[in-house]
């Protein structure tokens, strides 16, 4: 499974054809799932580390700009990824991160991360 099969709805059809051709079966993530503001942090299922933001980025208490800011991460600080979720509109992807230097955790929109964010889907997201 590649990241684009879940993250970009426009490529799901093409990815589905490719998966059918190879005999793989995969269900895309629900487009209406997100991580609600203020919920406890998701499980750390992404074992990768050493990630960074592309500049300063707000870390939020949920996967939306509607959620409060938990902290700020700077490109000079390392991030530990936990997993990713969609925003409430089912469009943008967000990764839950823990800033290694400050120990603050929060959600950062994936386009603000140097490598596009986590590849691990967060289980147990809120359904709209």
TrEMBL record:
UniProt keywords, alphabetically: Signal
Keyword Signal in annotation: yes
Signal sequence coordinates: 1-33
The organism's place on the tree of life at top rank: Bacteria
InterPro entries: TAT_signal
This protein's name: SH3 domain-containing protein
């Amino acid at each position: 499974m590649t990241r684009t099969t879940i993250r970009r709805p426009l490529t799901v059809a093409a990815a589905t054809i490719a998966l059918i051709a190879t005999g793989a079966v995969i269900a895309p993530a629900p487009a209406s799932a997100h991580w609600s503001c203020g919920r406890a942090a998701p499980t750390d299922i992404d074992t990768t580390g050493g990630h960074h933001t592309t500049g300063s980025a707000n870390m939020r208490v949920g996967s939306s700009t509607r959620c409060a800011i938990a902290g700020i991460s700077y490109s000079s600080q390392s991030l530990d990824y936990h997993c990713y979720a969609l925003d409430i509109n089912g469009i943008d992807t967000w990764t839950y991160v823990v800033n290694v230097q400050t120990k603050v955790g929060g959600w950062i929109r994936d386009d603000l991360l140097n490598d596009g964010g986590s590849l691990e889907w967060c289980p147990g997201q809120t359904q709209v």
